[in-house]
Amino acid sequence: MYRYGFSLIVAGLLLIACATGDALTQAKGIWISNNELSALPTSGPAWEKLKAAADSYFGKATGGHDDKHDVYTLGQALVAARLNDDRYRAKVADNLMSAIGSEDKGNALSISRNLLGYVLAADLIDFAKYEPEREARFREWLRNVRHKRLEGKSLISMHEKRPNNWGTHAGAGRIAIALYLGDTADLERAAKIFKGWLGDRSSYAGFEYGNLDWQADPTNSVGINPKGAMRQGHSIDGVLPDDQRREGGFQWPPPKENYVYGALQGVVAQAEMLHRAGYDTWNWQDKAILRAFQWTHKEANFPPTGDDTWLLPLIDRRYGTNFWNKLPVSPGKAMGWTDWTHGAASSGGASDSK
Asked: Is residue 64 part of a domain?
């Protein structure tokens, strides 16, 4: 009887610990927490642009890799959470449900780009609390869609094989899903792959690279060239070789290759989510992500424009840099609104991670 009673006590304590852990994870938020949101302004250009997007009619998910429905749904969820408004939550929930099956209308790239915004939106509105039945369907879709093959590729296989913008967007979607589902095993796997992509080949080295002309060491290919890398007297420290190659072999001055920023959109999203989950991503591999932005700005003389500008407020927040000109940014391929979420006074840099 004593042992039985003791076992019940232990089991109860474990349940309490698990529930507390879930609550802490939820309170922190995959991308941003309610506490952080509550401190953000409801006035100014960034908010006005976000609110206008949330109030607009942007239809239902179409599934193509240029579809912005996911990013606008995310914007709507940010407004819903900031205002604690059930009317916006209901709109977000409808948009989330429209995403189910939309992947069949797109291709392998679109499944990588389109998932992130929906997952973060569901987290922001606390979908499971407000609409548990529909959230269960959404959750089951997420559980399965990461393994679904389109054109012979799945979200996970692209993350583990494609070292360019396809793979980096796939990694962002994969990490978001793992965090939302509480899949710690897949999260740890994704983190190791990301660290390998940044240059730690002992963590992971299973990528299939294209032309190696921009690699610092073609026998040890990486996603971002290592610190101090040179070629013909020029710095290639921070180059993303598998996207820079899209303009051809090594040449100087370096081409202004926009695929690099396409890849960095997925990279920055991965880094931020993992950072919030406790990984030291912003410092990995001699601050590889910072070096990538330094190279594009200094060596390539190619700051981001258009839908790549959302990257800059977040990079400045994490590294204390001044890349962003403080003008409103445009929503990107899978993320946006960072002039509002991350453009306020810094609450800490990369050293926040463990």
From this structure: no
Among candidate residues 194, 168, 166, 201, the one with its CA nearest the CA of residue 277:
194
Domain coverage including residue 283: 210-345
Please give the pLDDT value at position 106. Answer: 85
Phi, psi of 230 (to 5 degrees): -130, 155
pLDDT over 50 (residue 92) = yes
The DSSP secondary-structure symbol of 153 reads: B
> Which pLDDT belongs to residue 67?
86
Residues 6+ apart with CB under 8 A from 258: 308
Higher-pLDDT residue of 44, 1:
44
Q: Given a cut of 50, is residue 25 above it in pLDDT?
A: no
Specify if 285 maps to a domain.
yes
Task: Assess if residue 111 is contained within a domain.
Answer: no
Which positions ≥6 away from 141 have C-beta within 8 Å? 99, 100, 101
**The token pair that represents 99 in the structure block:** 């995403």
Distant-in-sequence contacts of 327-331, Cβ < 8 A, 24+ apart: 328/45, 328/46, 328/49, 329/46, 330/306, 331/53, 331/68, 331/71, 331/72, 331/75, 331/307
For residue 147, tell me if it sits in a domain: no
Supply the pLDDT for residue 63.
81
What's the pTM value of the predicted model, to 2 decimals?
Answer: 0.90
Output phi, psi for 150, to 5 deg: -125, 125
Determine the residue type at 143. R
| Structural domains of the chain, count | 1
Burial of residue 117, with CB atoms counted within 10 A of its CB: 0-12 exposed, 13-18 middle, 19 or more buried: buried
- Mean per-residue pLDDT over the chain, rounded: 90
Beta bridge partners of 153: 150
- What confidence category does residue 27 fall into, taking pLDDT thresholds of 50, 70 and 90? low
